[in-house]
Design brief:
Elements (H helix, E strand, L loop, with lengths): L29 H10 L6 E9 L2 E8 L3 E8 L9 H15 L8 E5 L3 H12 L13 E5 L4 H10 L1 H6 L4 H18 L4 E3 L1 H9 L3 E7 L8 H16 L3 E5 L4 H7 L4 E5 L12
Parallel strand pairs: 1-4, 4-5, 7-8
Antiparallel strand pairs: 1-2, 2-3, 6-9, 7-9
Length: about 280
C-alpha cells in the first residue's frame, strides 16, 4: 500500500511523448522486465492490416503485437437498394487513411468471399498517390479468398500460410503459430498437449513442456500468490529448455487460449491421461 494506490488496485497516468520519467518497483520479475522491453521496442505496433470486404460491407482490423483491433466497420447495405460501389470504396479508402499509418505498416491483406476485394485493390492503387505514406503500397498488398466476414473471416486470414509469410518474423506470427500447433496437437495427438492449471503443473513437474502458452490475464490476477506461481512456472519451463509464449488476451490468439482456461502446453513426449495423474 501507499498513499496513492492501494494494493491490488491500479491508477491510470498520462505519459507525455519525449518527456523522461522514472519507473520503480520493489521487485522486478521476469514477466515485468519482458513487458518493459517490449514496450520500449520501437517496432512495436501494427504488424498487419486486414481488410475484409464484400459489396456494401467492410471490416478493418489492425493485428498488432499485443492486440487485434476492429477499428472500423462500414455497412452501406440499405434495404434492397443497389449499392454505389464507387461511394462505398471511397468510404473504405478514407477509413484506411484515418486508421492506418502506412509509413510503419509493412503489409496489408484484402480478403473477401467474392471479387469485390479485387476491384477495391484496383481502386486503392489508383488513389494511393494522394497519400504520401502510401508510396509503394502496391508491393505490400496481398489478396486472399475467405468464406466469411467478421471474426471468422479474420481467423481464416490468419490461418492462411500466405498471410503468415507476410508477418513471419513478428510477435503476432509467433503467437498465432503456437496456438495453431496447440490446436493441431489437441486434435491429432492429444497425449502431447494439455490445458488447464492442474495438467500444466503436472507436465512441468515431469519436465515435459516444450512450449508453454499462457495469457497475460493470468499475470494480472488480484491474488499475488497466483501471479507469483505463474511467473515461477514460466521461469521453470525456460530453465528446463522449453519456451514460453505469452499471449495477449486482446489478441485473436489470446482470445482462443482464454477459452481453454488461459494456460496450455505442447509436450516433448506423450503423457497419456495427464488429467488423471497425481505426483
Amino acid at each position: 500500500n501507499n498513499s496513492y494506490v492501494t494494493a491490488g488496485s491500479f491508477h491510470t497516468l498520462e505519459l507525455v511523448k519525449d518527456k523522461a520519467f522514472e519507473l520503480k518497483k520493489k521487485s522486478w520479475d521476469s514477466i515485468s522486465i519482458e513487458n518493459l522491453k517490449e514496450g520500449c521496442n520501437k517496432k512495436s505496433g501494427c504488424d498487419l492490416v486486414v481488410l475484409l470486404i464484400n459489396p456494401g460491407l467492410a471490416h478493418l482490423y489492425l493485428v498488432g503485437r499485443s492486440m487485434t483491433n476492429l477499428c472500423s466497420t462500414l455497412d452501406s447495405k440499405i434495404g434492397g437498394k443497389k449499392i454505389d460501389l464507387s461511394k462505398f470504396f471511397e468510404r473504405v479508402f478514407n477509413a484506411l487513411v484515418k486508421n492506418v499509418d502506412f509509413s510503419v505498416v509493412n503489409c496489408m491483406v484484402i480478403a473477401g468471399p467474392g471479387s469485390t476485394k479485387d476491384h477495391f485493390r484496383q481502386y486503392l492503387l489508383s488513389q494511393a498517390s494522394r497519400v504520401k505514406s502510401m508510396e509503394g503500397v502496391k508491393s505490400r498488398v496481398a489478396l486472399l479468398d475467405v468464406n466469411s466476414m467478421g471474426k471468422e473471416g479474420l481467423r481464416e486470414v490468419l490461418d492462411d500460410p500466405r498471410a503468415m509469410s507476410l508477418i513471419k518474423d513478428t510477435k503476432s506470427a509467433t503467437e498465432l503459430k503456437a496456438m495453431k500447433e496447440l490446436n493441431e496437437m489437441l486434435l491429432f495427438h492429444p497425449d502431447k498437449a494439455c490445458y488447464g492449471p492442474k495438467s500444466v503443473d503436472l507436465a512441468s513437474e515431469l519436465m515435459a513442456i516444450e512450449t508453454l502458452l499462457i495469457t497475460d490475464e493470468l499475470f494480472r490476477n488480484r491474488d499475488n500468490g497466483l501471479r507469483k506461481k505463474y511467473i515461477g512456472l514460466v521461469d521453470s519451463v525456460k530453465r528446463s529448455g522449453g519456451k514460453a509464449v505469452l499471449l495477449s488476451s486482446m489478441h485473436v490468439s489470446g482470445e482462443q487460449l482464454t477459452q481453454l482456461t488461459g494456460i496450455a502446453a505442447i509436450l516433448r513426449f506423450p503423457v497419456p491421461n495427464i488429467d488423471d495423474l497425481e505426483l
